[in-house]
Design brief:
alpha/beta, Cytidine Deaminase, domain 2, Dihydrofolate Reductase, subunit A, 2 domains, five-stranded mixed sheet, 10 helices, 16 strands, 26% helix, multifunctional enzyme, EC 1.1.1.193, RibDG_C, zinc ion binding, NADP
Length: 352
Amino acid sequence: MNIHEIYIKRAIQLAKNGLGNTYPNPIVGCVIVANNKIIGEGFTSPAGLNHAEVNAIENVKDKSLLKIATLYVTLEPCSHFGKTPPCADLIIKNNIPTVVIGTMDTNTEVCGKGVQRLTSAGVNVILGTLEEQCITSNMRFFSVQEKRRPYIILKWAQTSDFYISPEETKGEPMPFWITNTISRQLVHKWRTEEHAILVGTQTVVSDNPQLSARDWKGNNPIRLVLDASLRTPKNLHLWDDSTPTIFFISDKEPLPSEKFVQTSFVAIDFTLNIAEQIIAELYRLKIQSVIIEGGKKTLQSFIDSQLWDEARIFTSTQNLGSGTKAPVMRNFKLTSQYQIANDTVNLYHFCE
């Protein structure tokens, strides 16, 4: 690993600090080095606030060192005015002589224009250092830019005999826990990292989930509920209007008469491909990523439509013997496996 790769790797680590906080902007990390020492670091602030380069430059105590420094950044610096001024202009203004960029920004407002502005000002630009790793760190952003859809993560827990829930019973909705408490806390961490979370009606009716990140510090995702006939009882958590919530309902279903502040409704045609329609609506709503947590019908519809990028599957040591079988995976490769106490976590990625 050469010196440029070492500092870009550090920038990738920094970028992850922005997960779940920067939408609709990408997560970016930046490191500034002078005399073989890091003199400034930064990552992207929430939308409307500083980009990574700005935070890193502001972090430099002795600004005179910028004239001999190298700036390392995971994504091409922006060149346009949005809610903040162009980062390329700030780099030029501070006379930073060398900029090492992990990967180009495919957003049409930026794509190559940041590099062009830097090189026109005499900045030495080095492109493509740890490019694949930089792209992977920003997979949500690149999915929206290149696939015109959010990054899609499937998640479920299954018993060792491949059931995701027991037989349906009468009574109040109550979750049936397959995994241990540490695994459930990890899921809440994951929720803080994604823009939205999606479940089907049966999951809501059976479990009465909050779909929040209450066991981890961070933002709650936008709640998405697939409920054609709005049969979710009004006394359940997802009607509490406590956080942005979208119900996908049938285009033949009348809208509720109640007034809501954070709850809205999107009509789709349930006789057509549901997964494709949801993804199109999420792209329209500028949602960058969604974690789909059930139930089986909802998960299977995305699998069968080949509309997913990553699957995170917990397998416990429990046996149920009967109930709802786990979804059937297709077009996948196992990329990682690890243990959380008695739970096994398998991570898969879609492959054609």
